[in-house]
Structure prediction request, 477 residues.
Amino acid sequence: MKILHVTAECYPVAKVGGLGDVAGALPKYQKKLGHTAMLVMPMYKTPFLNTHQWAVVHKGQASLGDYHFNFTIIREEGQSLGFDLYLVDINGLLDRPKVYGYPDDPQRFIAFQTAVATWLQSWKSLPDIVHLHDYHTGLLPFYFKHGYGFRRLENVPTVLTVHNAEYQGWLDWRNSSWLPAFDEWKSGLLEWNKTINPLASAIKNAWAVTTVSPSYLQELRFHSNGLEALFEYEKGKCSGILNGIDSELWNPQTDGLLEHHYHAKTVTAGKRANKKAVSENFGLNPDKPLFTFIGRLVGEKAADLLPDSLAAFLREQNGAANVIVLGSGEPEIEAGLQGLKGYFPANYDFYKGYSEQLSHALYAGADFLLMPSRVEPCGLNQMYALRYGTVPLVRRTGGLRDTITDIGDNGNGLCFDQASIGDILMTMNRAMDLYAQPKKMEALRFKMMQIDHSWEKTVSQYIDLYQSLIDQNKQSR
Prediction:
């Protein structure tokens, strides 16, 4: 079948979080199964753009209210990602270094979606499935069904994957002119709580909706930033499919970003060598257990609890453990984590920002990964940790609940229930007790590295879903 993914992120082109990792892997593994998988995203000014060759495949025109713009679709030559990658270039709107964070983000992503739909109209052979990712692409199902300019697309099945329901792309009705002309009798399919809500619209209009873990789907019916009733109402077309990880990219035996490679049988020596390398880089003693946090410093991740939790832990351990935090986000949290460096210079460091190389080094070198998230739709970090023999310390929520079971229940990590300083501190102390038992630690690492969370295991669930929609489409025509 012919599958087109539409997304705002895709690793390694442009990545902010887990959405980028998923978008960069899912089409590749679908193509390995023999399907024609493609992906289209905005053309940002990232290093990837200048280090690859491109061919122009389409030029078109569209409008954003009174603003008429030209757009160009370019395709990466050589399929370096393992599938056809298309970028949408809209001069002045999309060609910027950052993915998000601009005051005109609503206009940027509406223009992107309008350009994609306009381009699709010109295809001789339409896709069998258009797979949309998060709110940045959420208006497309409505365009296809009720946009006057896209009648040719109304029978193309659409699948929406909700990677994070906290972000919904709210838009005041005063700005409805930014959208292409549509059947105003259907305007209720754009709305939720008296605003245009792209995520809600996608849930209403897409043929099927998936979430990135089964537990997250259940949680959304009770906690989804205002969409609880909608998820309950539409539950019949929703399913939870656990994300996978790219086992070729995330493989400690071949990882090109690591100084020292290892596998399950050499995990103890391999991790010791990588911990020594990363510890020397940060001026820490490699003979001590190393804890790490890798991620966005936002309330969703419970990162606001980190400064006080880590301070209490390091004070209590009195030099017996090391901690490295890698991430960026809310200035107040960054300041708190930066401030800890002055109090614990021999046992703590904070790298503000994101480094792909350092993240791989930390997964390989750290003994424990902390994930106290309040919201974690799926979580990939804990799967990377398992793959690299690093024990996850997780709060039971979303995908963390689906992938990590406490060692007290013969599981693969350490779990806690509350996003609180007390629960974080208790779990880190449990980790210290575990570290003091080398044989138990080695057996756990070996066990973790045997777990298969690769895309090969889960991609067939998407194919089955697509096929059911294609069959449904044939029956209804």
Q: What stands out?
A: The chain has a mean pLDDT of 96. The radius of gyration is 23 Å. The longest helix spans residues 455-476.
